[in-house]
Amino acid sequence: MSCKEYAWKIGPYVDGELPSGERNGVEAHIQRCEDCREMAMSFRALDRLAGGVEIPSVSGREWAAMLEAVTASAPAQPALRTRRSWEWLLPVASAAALLLLSLFIGKTFFEGQQRAGGDVPLAGQESGVSGRSPLADKPGPSLQELPEEEELQEESVVDPRRADSRNDPAGQGSDF
Amino acid sequence: MRDASDDEDIRKVEEFLRGDSKAFEFLFDKYHDKVYSIAYRFVRNREDALDVAQEVFLRVHLGLGSFKSGSRFFTWLYRIAVNRAIDFTRRRKVLPISGSESFDLENWAEDPGRRTPSPLEVAQEREIEERLAEAVSRLSPKHRAVFVLHASENLSYKEIAEVLDCNIGTVMSRLFYARKKLQEILAGFGFDLLGTQKGR
Ligand SMILES: [Zn+2]
Fold this sequence. Notes:
The structure holds two protein chains of two kinds.
Chain A: H1 3-14, H2 20-32, H3 34-52, H4 60-72, H5 82-86, H6 91-116, H7 141-157
Chain B: H1 4-17, H2 21-43, H3 46-63, H4 73-94, H5 99-102, H6 120-137, H7 141-152, H8 157-164, H9 168-188, H10 193-198
The structure holds zinc ion.
């Protein structure tokens, strides 16, 4: 077996994840091959260093405040920082707001165009019902982010081979 | 495959769904550090990590009814945590903040030589840890997720596969490339992992 074939097994070997039947072979190779030995050592070093990265502490009071905010679960009362804590809670409200806004912009634009010839390139002009495109130019952050986050995560982290078998907690963040 | 801790979690989920709010408190207390830690490995900023953690628990609080008790609670929870953290870093990326500015809080300096001098060994160790954190943040989300769950959170390949809903082969492959990429990035920073290790 070549180094290239062993290379795949070095991580699992270091991590203790290699089936016992394969362990001895990898071990023997590592003994005599400097490159593979160095790879194993640097993988170990990486893990050790990653484990050592310090995490700033959080006080009991802060956790208590968070728990209180969470269990209140009302969009209006997050304790720590409101910005990202509640925006996801309002998909329906956001959709409604988008629809209203798009209708409003579409209407405003349409009226403006009737009055002045209207050179503002609003997408609402093309479709008053898409709900998203009218915000393309100047989106409010929470309105814009909601639809995009699902798409982005699908693309990055779902293993497509397994996408159908996932335990999807009704959109509660499990976008893998 | 499930151990006593997993069974206990499932019991608490059931109790919560029957209206016992203390059961949620139990799960919160048991896992807040882990969720915060995962978030922090991604966002590398205390306040942002707390933000992410709160968002995760809000989702859990509202979404426990949809948790399928055939799976383990912590893998479901970690999945939400990783997802929210990745989402956060993506959103931050599109904000008009420069990369270095967003990391200023922890002083993850581009030039570690400017940091306050301290005993050499400690400084070297801290420096490379910081550089590693910086390097991890440069990985793609899926490689970062696997590396963080493995190296920082000590999950097994099987557990990582559960969290990320992929197979173990995918975990192995992503971890391999994550490590190679990290070596490469650190080498670019002028760090030789083995040199550092030998020099300790
Ligand atoms: Zn070799």
